[in-house]
Write a structure and sequence with these properties.
By secondary structure, the protein is mostly helical. The protein contains 16 helices and 2 strands. It has a two-stranded antiparallel ribbon with strand order 1-2.
């Protein structure tokens, strides 16, 4: 998938051997490059060159091919076991087995050129496992802490590369909610540690957007809203065409009850060529309704319906939002439009219209 020393060594060794055969054959040709005429000098001296080559190549093969191979086998086996079939839903989901962690840790212990990737894959597994409702919280925390320990080892081994600080910061941000539920003190301590790592990462990569994105997430988790907003604003300036920082900044304002700031950010998003999806709008709408930011929810519904003008269900939900904000006339008009679009939901909307006449 990627060019790495593990694959390049094999490819380049084969090419070198082909070149050796070609230039050895051509060494008697007057046109052969002078740099390759010396190859004939080794003829008949295999008793020297073969042991010498073996002494050099065998350790190189062991370190660059055999050990990475063993590590990659364990890593692949761990990744293959990450998911299992959910008997209830029939879908694949991330599962916990002690063997999975053992395989990742075995792949890491070999300590080859691919050790950083091994640790990052274990972190990916830990973050996905944290989302699974059927996995006990304590189990999730154990896996997260194991993954963090490996990522901190990467920082110690390669402290001059900003990516080494980004992965543990991202893992903590993604699993903060799980940690907060059962170990709030640990969650806060790790979030503070993230800010320390990101400070060092900024020194190494001062214009890297992800540094400020992860900082904003960590600060938001710590309820330091103004500082989080400033971090997200830096990201929106560095990469204004990417939607995720705008969405996160909007969500931050809504969650903090700063609806005027949220409205300004929504207008900024509308002015940019950002392709927000229906799913993006639905997520933001749910957040707004949960915070009773009904005006923002209505504005988002209107933009969402511009993408799917025939969506009667979304229109019916907009009608309910109008009712919740006290605009009964808009609720009635929108409900009637939804009923005209979909006879299947017309009966239910008739009941809804009755609630507008008698709110009790």
């Amino acid at each position: 998938i990627f060019d790495t020393i593990n694959t390049d060594v094999v490819v380049l060794a084969v090419l070198a051997y082909v070149a050796f055969l070609h230039f050895t054959h051509a060494s008697g040709d007057a046109q052969a490059p002078d740099s390759h005429r010396h190859l004939t000098a080794f003829a008949g001296k295999g008793w020297v060159t073969v042991p010498l080559a073996a002494a050099v190549l065998f350790p190189a093969f062991w370190y660059t091919v055999k050990r990475p191979y063993d590590s990659n086998v364990s890593l692949t086996q761990g990744i293959a076991l990450e998911k299992g079939l959910d008997p209830q839903s029939g879908k694949m989901r991330f599962i916990y087995m002690e063997e999975i962690g053992d395989l990742f840790k075995r792949a890491d212990r070999i300590q080859t050129t691919g050790r950083y990737e091994v640790r990052e894959e274990y972190a990916n597994y830990a973050s996905e496992l944290a989302k699974e409702p059927l996995v006990p919280a304590e189990t999730k925390i154990v896996v997260v802490r194991e993954a963090l320990a490996l990522l901190e080892e990467s920082i110690r081994q390669d402290p001059a590369f900003a990516r080494r600080y980004m992965y543990p910061s991202s893992l903590i941000n993604m699993t903060f909610g799980v940690l907060q539920e059962t170990h709030p003190g640990l969650a806060r301590a790790l979030a503070e540690k993230t800010l320390s790592w990101l400070q060092r990462a900024e020194g190494l990569a001062p214009t890297r957007p992800q540094v400020f994105l992860e900082r904003g997430r960590a600060l938001a988790s710590l309820k330091r809203i103004d500082e989080a907003a400033s971090a997200f604003q830096v990201v929106t300036k560095l990469i204004p065409w990417v939607k995720s920082p705008h969405l996160e900044l909007f969500a931050l304002y809504v969650s903090a009850g700063r609806f005027e700031d949220a409205a300004k950010e929504r207008e900024k998003m509308a002015a940019l060529p950002l392709a927000l999806s229906v799913s993006d709008y639905d997520s933001l709408i749910r957040l707004c309704i949960s915070r009773k930011a009904f005006s923002e929810a209505v504005a988002l519904y209107q933009r969402r319906l511009a993408l799917t003008p025939g969506d009667a269900v979304a229109m019916a939900h907009l009608a309910a939002t109008y009712r919740d904000m006290g605009d009964m006339e808009s609720a009635r008009r929108t409900a009637l439009s939804a009923a005209a679009l979909s006879p299947q939901i017309a009966a239910g909307l008739q009941e809804f219209l009755k609630t507008l006449e008698d709110p009790k």
